[in-house]
Specification:
The chain is an alpha/beta fold. It is built from 17 helices and 14 strands. It has a domain of 218 residues: P-loop containing nucleotide triphosphate hydrolases (Rossmann fold). It is 61% helix and 12% strand. A six-stranded antiparallel beta sheet has the order 2-1-4-5-6-7. The protein has a six-stranded mixed beta sheet with strand order 8-11-12-3-13-14, sandwiched between helices. A hairpin with an 8-residue loop joins strand 1 and strand 2. Helix 6 crosses helix 11. It is rod-shaped. It starts with a strand and ends with a helix.
C-alpha cells in the first residue's frame, strides 16, 4: 500500500485538523448527504495540484477555505497533506523518484489567493509536484480519481477526449509531457534561430564593408612591402650614384680650378706689371678696366644661369609631383579617413531606427551624397592646387631671371666685342711695349677656356644638387610610407651590378606608380580596421556556429518528437488491446454476457482557413470553391470509439443504453482500464450510486478484485460496497457547521453494513 494518510485543515467543511489513515486495501468514507464526505475526494484533487476550481465545486480560491459556522469563525488558510509510503518495493523501485522512504506532499492556500506547495516541508513549484507525480502515473484527475459524473463522462466524451482519458490511464502522460516539452523547446529553438539569423543579417552589410576595407589594407600592406623592396634598391643605388658623381666632379674640377687659380695669379701679376710700366697708355688702362668689367659680368651672368638652373630643377620636380597628385585626384575611389566612415555609419544606424522608414532612406541617400561630394579626393586635390600655385610662382621668377640673364648676356656680349676690338688694335701694333697687354690677352683667353670647362662642371654640380634634393625628398617620403626602414638603405650589403642611368629612372617611375596606388587606397588605420574586422568576423562565426548548433538541436528535437509519437502510438495500440481483453471480461461479468470493445477511429474535420478577404489583404490569390468561399482544409483526428452488444438485446449503440446500463458499462470500462495499468491508488466517489442491489454485488466483487492491484478509497452509500472495506470513516456535520470524522474497524464496519 502506498497511501499512508491524508490530513485536512481548514479545507472546505473540515475546519479543524482531520486525519485519515489508510491501513487497509479498501477504505470507505460514508456519511449523509451534505456532511462533506465528497470533500475528501476533492482534497485529493487539491493536494495533487488541481487548478480547475469547477472540478472542486468552487469559483474562487477562497471558496476552498472554511467559511465559518455558528460556533467557529472563518479560516484564513487551508491545507491538505498527503503522505506516501515511498520505501523500495520489489526490485528496489520506489513509487516516487525521490530518495525518501516517506514523502509528504502538502498544498496551502490563503485568502489572498497565494498558493504554496511543499515536499517533506520544503517549498517547491507546482511544476515540481506535477513532474514528481507524473513518474508514478498520478495526477490531479484521471482514471485513479473517479466520481459518479466522471464515470459517465468517458461514455459522453467525444473520440478525442476519450483517447486523452485512456492515454492518461495507460500512463502515457509522461511521454505526452515530454513531447509537449520537446515541442516547446523546438519552438523556442526556431525562434532563437530566427533571432540569430536576424543578428547575422544585421552585421552582414557592415562585415562586407569591413572585408573590403581589409582587402584595401592587405593591398596597402603588400604595396608597402613591394615599395620597401624597391626603395631599398633604389635608395642604395641612388646614394652610390650621387656619391660617385660628386667624387667624379670633384676630381675633374681639381685641375681646372688649380689652372684658374694660377691664371688669376698670373693675370694679377700681369696687371701689376702693366700698371707699373712706363709704357702705360690709355689702351692699357682700358684693358685693365675692361677685364674687371668682364669678370663682374661673367660672375653675374653665371649666378643668374645657376639660379635659372635651380628653378628648372624645382619646376621639374614639382611637375612630377603635380602629375602624381592629379592622377590621385582623378581616380574613382574616394580617399576618406576611416574614422569619418565610422561616424557616417553611426548616423545611418540612428536614421534606420526612425519609425518613418521611407523618410529615413531619403535622408540617408542625401547624407551619403553630401559625404562623398565633400570628401572625394579632397587631400589630393588640395595638394595639387598648392603645387600649381608654387609652380606658377617659380615660373614667374624663372621668367624674370631669364629676362635679366638675357640683359646680362647682351652686356657681356658688348664687353666681349669691345674686348676683341681692343685686342685687335693692340695686336696690330708691333711695338714690344705691348708685350704686357698681349700677355694679359693670352691669360684671359686661357681663363675663358678654363671657365668654360668649369661652367660645364658647374652645370653638372647644379644637376647633382637637384638630384640630391630629390633624393632627400624621396627619402623623407619613403620614411612616411614605409617607416624608419627607409633609412636602413645604408646598411644594405647587397652588391648591385652596374647599370645604365635609365634603369634607375624606370625604378623611380615604378615607385611613383606605387605611391599613387597607395594614395588611392586612402589613409586607413590598419590596426583599427583589422581589429574591428576580426571582432566582427568572430561575432559572425560565433552566430554561424550558434545557428549550426540550433539546427542540430532542432533536428534532434524533431527526431525525439517523432520517436515519442511513435512510442505513444505503439503503447496506445498495445494498451487498447489489453484494455479490450479486460473490458470484455468485466462487461460480461456485469451484464451476464454480451460483448464490448474499444476501437481506434478516424474522424475527418474541416479546418477553417482564412477568408478570401483576409487572403486578399495579405496579397495572396486563391481559387474559390463552388459556394464562392475559400475551400476549407480537412484534417484527420484519431480517437477512441466504444462498441457494445448487450445480451438478449439488439442494442449496439451507447445512445440506446439506459441509465443503469450506461453506469455498468462505464464502471466495467474504468475497472478494465485500471486492471491494465493499475495506479497506486484509486478514488471512487459514489460511482455505485445508480446500481441496484443485484448489480451492487457484482460491483462489490469487482472492487474487491481491484483492491488486489490498487489501494482503494471508496466514497459510498452502498452497503454492499461498505462491506468490502477494511476501514470505514464516517463523516458527520453537527450544529457547529463543520465536518467531523469517525472511524470504525473492519468487523464493526461489517456489522454496521448488515
Amino acid at each position: 500500500m502506498y497511501l499512508k494518510s491524508l490530513e485536512l485543515s481548514g479545507f472546505k467543511s473540515f475546519a479543524k485538523k482531520s486525519n485519515l489513515e489508510f491501513n487497509a486495501p479498501v477504505t470507505a468514507v460514508v456519511g449523509p448527504n451534505g456532511s462533506g464526505k465528497s470533500n475528501v475526494a476533492e482534497a485529493f484533487r487539491f493536494v495533487l495540484g488541481e487548478q480547475s476550481m469547477k472540478s472542486m465545486r468552487g469559483k474562487r480560491t477562497e471558496d476552498l477555505i472554511f467559511n465559518g459556522g455558528d460556533s467557529m469563525s472563518r479560516g484564513n488558510r487551508a491545507s491538505v497533506k498527503l503522505v506516501f509510503d515511498n520505501s523500495p518495493k520489489a526490485g528496489g523501485k520506489r513509487l516516487l523518484n525521490i530518495d525518501f522512504d516517506e514523502v509528504a506532499i502538502e498544498r496551502v492556500i490563503h485568502r489572498d489567493s497565494l498558493s504554496e506547495y511543499f515536499v517533506n516541508g520544503s517549498a517547491v513549484r507546482l511544476r515540481d509536484i506535477v513532474e514528481l507525480l507524473a513518474g508514478a502515473h498520478i495526477g490531479s484527475s484521471g482514471h485513479h480519481m473517479i466520481s459518479q459524473g466522471e464515470a459517465d463522462r468517458i461514455l459522453n466524451a467525444n473520440i478525442r477526449e476519450r483517447r486523452e482519458m485512456i492515454e492518461d490511464a495507460l500512463g502515457l502522460k509522461i511521454y505526452q509531457y515530454k513531447r509537449e516539452e520537446s515541442e516547446r523547446k523546438l519552438e523556442r529553438t526556431r525562434e532563437n534561430m530566427e533571432k540569430v539569423e536576424s543578428l547575422r543579417k544585421e552585421i552582414a552589410p557592415h562585415l562586407k564593408f569591413l572585408k573590403k576595407q581589409v582587402e584595401k589594407v592587405e593591398k596597402t600592406i603588400a604595396l608597402r612591402e613591394e615599395l620597401a623592396k624597391l626603395y631599398k634598391e633604389y635608395l642604395k643605388k641612388e646614394s652610390r650614384y650621387l656619391s660617385d658623381t660628386e667624387a667624379a666632379i670633384e676630381a675633374e674640377s681639381k685641375g681646372p680650378k688649380a689652372d684658374l687659380d694660377r691664371l688669376e695669379k698670373e693675370l694679377a701679376s700681369a696687371k701689376q706689371v702693366l700698371e707699373a710700366s712706363t709704357h702705360k697708355d690709355a689702351k692699357s688702362g682700358e684693358l685693365i678696366e675692361l677685364e674687371s668689367k668682364l669678370k663682374q659680368a661673367r660672375e653675374a651672368r653665371d649666378e643668374l644661369v645657376r639660379s635659372v638652373g635651380r628653378m628648372e630643377g624645382e619646376l621639374s620636380s614639382l611637375e612630377k609631383m603635380l602629375v602624381r597628385e592629379k592622377s590621385a585626384a582623378s581616380t574613382e575611389a574616394a580617399i576618406v579617413e576611416y574614422s569619418k566612415v565610422k561616424d557616417l555609419l553611426a548616423k545611418v544606424d540612428v536614421l534606420l531606427d526612425e519609425a518613418d522608414f521611407m523618410g529615413a532612406v531619403s535622408k540617408i541617400r542625401a547624407m551619403v551624397k553630401g559625404f562623398l561630394d565633400s570628401n572625394k579626393n579632397a587631400r589630393a586635390e588640395s595638394r595639387a592646387a598648392d603645387i600649381e600655385k608654387e609652380l606658377a610662382q617659380i615660373r614667374l621668377q624663372k621668367t624674370e631671371a631669364e629676362g635679366e640673364s638675357k640683359e646680362r648676356e647682351a652686356a657681356l656680349a658688348d664687353l666681349s666685342a669691345a674686348y676683341i676690338a681692343l685686342q685687335k688694335d693692340i695686336e696690330k701694333e708691333k711695338d714690344s711695349s705691348r708685350d704686357a697687354e698681349k700677355a694679359m690677352f693670352r691669360i684671359m683667353a686661357d681663363q675663358n677656356q678654363v671657365r668654360g670647362t668649369l661652367g660645364i662642371l658647374r652645370v653638372r654640380e647644379d644637376k647633382l644638387r637637384l638630384e640630391k634634393e630629390d633624393f632627400k625628398r624621396e627619402l623623407e617620403e619613403g620614411a612616411i610610407l614605409i617607416g624608419r626602414d627607409a633609412y636602413l638603405y645604408e646598411t644594405d650589403t647587397t652588391e648591385y651590378p652596374a647599370e645604365d642611368r635609365h634603369m634607375q629612372e624606370a625604378r623611380r617611375k615604378d615607385i611613383e606608380k606605387i605611391k599613387i596606388r597607395l594614395e588611392d587606397n586612402g589613409g586607413l588605420s590598419a590596426g583599427d580596421v583589422m581589429k574591428e574586422f576580426k571582432d566582427t568576423s568572430e561575432r559572425d562565426e560565433f552566430l554561424a556556429r550558434e545557428i549550426l548548433d540550433l539546427e542540430k538541436s532542432a533536428e534532434s528535437l524533431d527526431t525525439l518528437i517523432k520517436d515519442l509519437e511513435d512510442k505513444l502510438d505503439t503503447l496506445f495500440s498495445e494498451g487498447i488491446e489489453k484494455i479490450n481483453k479486460q473490458f470484455k471480461i468485466f462487461f460480461s461479468l456485469m451484464f451476464g454476457g454480451g460483448e464490448a470493445s474499444l476501437s481506434v477511429v478516424e474522424e475527418k474535420k474541416r479546418k477553417r482557413g482564412p477568408s478570401a478577404e483576409e487572403l486578399a489583404e495579405m496579397g495572396i490569390e486563391t481559387g474559390l470553391g463552388e459556394d464562392g468561399n475559400v475551400p476549407e482544409e480537412e484534417e484527420t483526428e484519431l480517437g477512441v470509439g466504444i462498441e457494445v452488444n448487450l445480451p438478449r438485446k439488439k442494442v449496439k449503440s451507447l445512445e440506446m443504453l439506459s441509465g443503469g446500463e450506461r453506469a455498468l458499462t462505464s464502471i466495467a470500462l474504468l475497472f478494465a482500464i485500471s486492471q491494465v495499468n493499475p495506479p497506486p491508488f484509486i478514488i471512487l466517489d459514489e460511482t455505485d450510486a445508480a446500481l441496484d442491489e443485484a448489480n451492487s454485488k457484482k460491483y462489490g466483487d469487482m472492487v474487491e478484485n481491484l483492491s488486489k492491484h490498487s489501494q482503494l478509497i471508496v466514497i459510498t452509500h452502498n452497503r454492499e460496497t461498505m462491506s468490502r472495506a477494511g476501514v470505514l470513516y464516517g463523516v458527520t456535520m453537527g450544529k457547529e457547521g463543520f465536518s467531523k470524522l469517525l472511524s470504525i474497524a473492519f468487523n464493526e464496519a461489517l456489522v454496521v453494513a448488515k
